[in-house]
């Protein structure tokens, strides 16, 4: 399931907010093959970004 995008008012300081999914990190090594999938779990992830387009093209159907 997709995580909804984080919605915050414009100008909000988000520098103190971080994303960490410990369950995922305990289950899968974070390496170059997993990094996009891991970041896609974050509410910061933009499902319309170029990274998502590339990720979808490289995912076998």
From TrEMBL:
Keywords: Activator, Nucleus, Transcription, Transcription regulation. It comes from the Eukaryota. One of its GO terms (biological process) is regulation of transcription by RNA polymerase II. Gene3D superfamilies: Mediator complex, subunit Med6. The keyword Cytoplasm does not apply. It is found in: Nucleus. InterPro entries: Mediator_Med6, Mediator_Med6_sf. GO terms for molecular function: transcription coregulator activity. GO terms for cellular component: mediator complex. Component of the Mediator complex. Belongs to the Mediator complex subunit 6 family. Component of the Mediator complex, a coactivator involved in the regulated transcription of nearly all RNA polymerase II-dependent genes. Mediator functions as a bridge to convey information from gene-specific regulatory proteins to the basal RNA polymerase II transcription machinery. Mediator is recruited to promoters by direct interactions with regulatory proteins and serves as a scaffold for the assembly of a functional preinitiation complex with RNA polymerase II and the general transcription factors. This is Mediator of RNA polymerase II transcription subunit 6. The gene is MED6.
């Amino acid at each position: 399931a997709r995580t909804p995008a984080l919605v915050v008012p414009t100008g909000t300081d988000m520098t103190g907010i971080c994303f960490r999914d410990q369950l995922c990190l305990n289950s899968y090594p974070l390496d170059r093959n997993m990094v996009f999938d891991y970041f896609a779990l974050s509410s910061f992830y933009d499902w319309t970004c170029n990274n998502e387009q590339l990720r979808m093209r490289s995912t076998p159907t």
